[in-house]
Specification:
binds zinc ion; alpha+beta; seven-stranded antiparallel sheet; five-stranded mixed sheet; 3 domains; 11 helices; globular
Length: 459
Amino acid sequence: MSTVLQAYRFALDPNPGQESALRSHCGSQRFAFNWGLGKIKANLSQREAEASYGMGGDELTPLVGWSAYGLRKDWNQAKHEVAPWWAENSKEAYSSGLANLASALKNWRDSRVGRRQGRRLGFPRFKGKRAGLSCRFTTGSFGLVDQDRRHVRLPRIGVVRTHESTRTLARRVEKGTARIRSATVSYRARRWFVSFSVEITRNDSTPTRPGTTLGVDLGIKSLAVLSTGEVIANPRHLEVAQRELRRLQRQASRRQGPDRRHGQKASNRWSKTQARIRKLHADVANARRDGLHKLTTRLVRTYGAIVLEDLNVSGMVTNRRLARHVAGVGMAELRRQIEYKAAWAGVRVHIADRWYPSSKTCSGCGVVKAKLRLSDRVFACSSCGTSMDRDLNAARNLANLVEASSHSWWATENEPDGNPCQTRTMRAAGTATGRPAPHGAGQRRHRKAPTHETFSHVS
Ligand SMILES: [Zn+2]
């Protein structure tokens, strides 16, 4: 049993009054963010000016606090003056904006002194009208509505109907294995969503075939080929969507888009086409994500170990076609889902080295071909005579990578008590790829909120 933070996201179907309340809350969030940022910027430049006059130490205007708590305190003193309408919205809307500002400031500061990984972050900027709408509620009455499983409750906004049933979460709440911690509303692709951040007590059953290793070859033609011979087809709507996308882009090109040089505003008709294009992209992404979720759940419930390729597979970089790009997005998402779901189910995940020649190696005898063209759909081995589908060969190689790689790897599987849920395996150093264990290889980790799809949008 483990406790993880998971997100449950539902599309909302608000009535006009609720919709304007949602907009108002998200707008207030932005207002509070910008207010706090303005205050901090003014404070910093005031101090800078004072320092340039030779003042220093105690003579300078004191720094404005950067913590969410400090900002909230300042806001509560100033709100009557700067936002006399503040009482129209829940106080959570303002707190949400200020909390986002505080974390943006902290990220900037950490990034500057090297305490934060990833690319360097700039100083927070004012949020314009086109910034994504969102607002987070951490206190107040929010959650599911008991009666029909088709409504959620939000502070101030009231009981809002959802587009789909909330039963998956409702059942968990009823059983006492879920505790809703916060609710974030957001507006994406012409639709309102609520995302509940939920503390889930998970008790996943062990996979049905714990002794089997599965190799997954991610492809372009089909979504994936499994070492069992199963081919996971690409969802067909992708092709249909691409035809539609080309049509819409032609349509947009005939309409008047914005032009900064001449101060030309976009026409309404152009904007409408753009909205359709965004909707189409969102539909494709949703369908793809849905398919991936179903696939990854099935895989981690079945196999004891899963081997994936590392991303940036060499060939992928060279091809500029959209299909590859879309496939690439799916690949990253598939890996992300397998990694966190495997962690819950106690399944080991192995990421093959980026340069491991999974396509060029013969899965029968292990001979590595010098050259294999992308157009060669069938792998034919000249030394042992094996002949099979190119992607299946690659998938089998991936599976072999772990099965053959080390007895030491398997030896760690059964720890003294032999409880499969508690199994911790570390990949032995110096196995197949000869490199240190890659990120996430075969380790059972408890990641905080790995599923939170909206986190990236919220801040
Ligand atoms: Zn061979």
